[in-house]
Amino acid sequence: MIFNDLAFLFIFLPTVLAVFFLPPLRGLRPWTLLAASFVFYGLSGLEHAVALAAGIVWVYLVSGRTGAEGNKWRLTAAIALPALALVYYKYTGFLIASVLGIEASASKEFSLFRDVVLPAGISFFTFQLIAFAIDRYRGDIPTVPRFGLFALYVSFFPQLVAGPILRYHEIAEPLHGLRAFRLEANAAARAVAFIALGLAAKVLIADTLHHYIAGWRAEPGALGSVTALYVLFAYSFQIYFDFYGYSLVAIGLGLLFGFSFPDNFRRPYEALNPREFWRRWHRTLSYWIRDYLYLPLGGNERYRRNIIIIFAACGLWHGAGWTFIIWGLYHAILVLGYSAGAKGWDKLPRLAQIALTFVLVSAGWTLFMFDFSGIAAFARSLAGLGAAPLAGPGLEHWAFLALAATICFVPSFEAMARRAGDAARASLLRAGAYAFLSVAVMVFIDRSQDFIYFRF
Amino acid sequence: MRPLQFLVILSGLLVALFAVQRPAPQGDIFAAIPAGQRVRFAQITEPELYAAKLAHGRAAPRHAVGLFGNSRAVMVGANDLGTATGRFFNYAIPGGSFRTSVALAEDLARAGKLPKIVLISLDHLEIQFDGNPNTRRVGDWLRRVSRDAAAGISRTDIGARASLRAIWRHIYVGYGGMARYFNAEQLAAGLRWHLSDNGVQAWWNGSPRAGGSGYRHDGSRASAKPGKSRELGPIPAAASAVLVEFLREDLRRLAALQRRGARIIVYESPLHAASFERASRRPAPHATVMRAAFLRGCNRLGLECHGQGAATAVAAAAGWRDATHPPAMALAAYLSALIARAPAKRPNEGAREEGARRRGARTAGPAQ
């Protein structure tokens, strides 16, 4: 199931809320949410729900015992199963075809290694499982949570398939306080605002951009240079609003059940340099990598080596393919390049720094859009060497891109959503605006696409 | 803002969204189509077409022949059947199921306009296409749900399991019907409808034309070009989906209509030769069981029913759109032959079983 679906908005969410807030079932709230989360996930494939459950049970059995602190064997065992599952589901095809160089068989018989369907969000929940095991090893979670609460920490539906990637300690308090939780009016208002704004970002902005550029993306070698430039920046905004929208909805849904999720984005396209970009974009992944990979590798002591390793890993986390690995290395080069030339870079006017960072990051997204031949063709188009160019963007396309850019750089959705919780501020007008936005989302929801980050 | 304010305004806007939608056609949008021409309908949905065809049936004199079904029957026009204009109407609803056809026939019977000869296409049982009638009227939907629910409680031959499955499908269809309103094109069509003169032409997408695809005044729809050969390959056996308990129940409803003076002929929709051969050689076991139940039910109820084997000539014809959509002329020839056959005798109420046993061999469908 996905957030941008009427069945989720009209059936799943109201049902879960009704059962959750039913007074006689107050004591069962963690189990209600756990059951709802597995229904949410299981609707996209029972086998994947079983894989999720197996990972939860395994990590809890190994790391949830006393004696997990400082025990390397337990840590290794706890991490091994979810990591192997991630490798099997996500990287088998890549390893067989690209690394081992084995050609895919044309046989129609089922193959255990070829016919693998990637469970949605496996990279996200695997990282949460690993984080728990490491935190237990380090002694950062001295008290073992009850199994139900641990299972809910991993599988909680608002953040299950595309984050934010949470640490147990970040949500331990609301998890333990679920039975006593009361939804206050201002929190409900903020939740509604987060959900409405998030869905609007996804359905009204990201999906519109998707429909605008889908035809051009299918023919990367047949574009004029202006069209190619349009595709480059439109995709940059598309992927931002797509993932940002998801994260806002996740925050809003969390609030409805008493959880305060961390921000995953802090206006990333306003970053002054590539290093700062990663402190603003997908922050929960950046901090996960910092805490569980970069620092254990030695952190700044072996800066260059570690930056290359973590960005290659970051690329591989995003997808099983060389383009993703190169995308990660590209960002490593950007970060290292910035570090080497920071003195010069920082002297540039602020606007130039932002623009330069934005252009460099946008150029990197081409590795998300195309395979290698597509990238080469797209590069030719950018250079004005595209064959028989298709018709380029019209006024409507440019106007919408300008609107997306304005929305990206001017208002803060988080601030707007937080203001929505203030009952004293133009209440009726605000309620009307959010209601109108919600209906607008519903009217366009049938043409909405899957979230891009579901693939990761 | 206050959440209650938001919810009240949101509810109001949703009501407005529903209110702005184009209402189902009440007038006869087929009568205005000039003979020999065809019209495309603008953004018409399955329940709207149902309402339109029902409105036509109510407005027009009782037809001699009516063809019911879905896209596998909608291409047949009066000319194809060699029937005089006004004596035939094609009531097929693309996207509809056998249950849709039965519901539409009942609605027409209630208005006293059920055609004298009712031809009903049952989707070939290898396709396993099943579903409940789609309607825009909440009352109709509730009536159908409660009838299927009551059948599960009161009838041992249907049972709770089949009844629950049917109810789930009603919910699914109802949800799908509701979800259709959340669509920008539908909303725009609704706004255009309210801003126009609201006449039947508001349903037309452009003017009538002599060629191309579109609906004719006899309810039929001009078929598209024949499919490429790759689309004519044998269809795979579909998983079991038809609720055989309700198939029997629907046959009983048809038998009740037949007792009111109509001749009812049910035929299993033909398949293209390659699929027909596959279905004959390696039929899906559940399809075979259902076909036997279908033919047995017809036999017992005195309905004229024809299984897949009766349509061999259609299977071999040229011009199939795909493996399950036959060319109009070939299907029409088959249907004409069915009409020309002597109608089966109808059993007395008191001696139904005995009569059915005697007539066992007369029912045309070959056993698989």
Helices and strands in order, then pairings?
The complex is a heterodimer of chains A (456) and B (368).
Chain A: H1 6-20, H2 29-42, H3 46-63, H4 72-99, H5 122-138, H6 147-155, H7 157-160, H8 168-176, H9 185-218, H10 225-256, H11 274-280, H12 283-294, H13 303-318, H14 322-340, H15 342-345, H16 350-364, H17 366-369, H18 372-382, H19 395-409, H20 413-420, H21 427-444
Chain B: H1 3-20, H2 46-59, E1 65-68, H3 78-81, E2 88-90, H4 98-110, E3 117-122, H5 138-154, H6 159-179, H7 184-195, H8 244-258, E4 263-268, H9 273-281, H10 285-301, E5 304-306, H11 312-316, H12 328-340, H13 352-358
Tally of domains of chain A: 2
What's the CATH H-level superfamily name of chain B? SGNH hydrolase
Q: How many strand segments of chain A?
A: 0
Q: Gap between N and C termini of chain B, in Å?
A: 67 Å
Ranges of chain B with pLDDT <50 over ≥5 residues? Answer: 347-368
Q: Architecture of chain B in CATH?
A: 3-Layer(aba) Sandwich
**Biggest β-sheet strands, sense, barrel of chain B:** 5 strands, parallel
Taking strands numbered 1, 2, ... along the chain, how are they ordered across the largest sheet of chain B? 2-1-3-4-5
Coarse shape of chain B: globular
Tally the helices of chain A: what do you get? 21
Give the C-alpha Rg of chain B. 21 Å
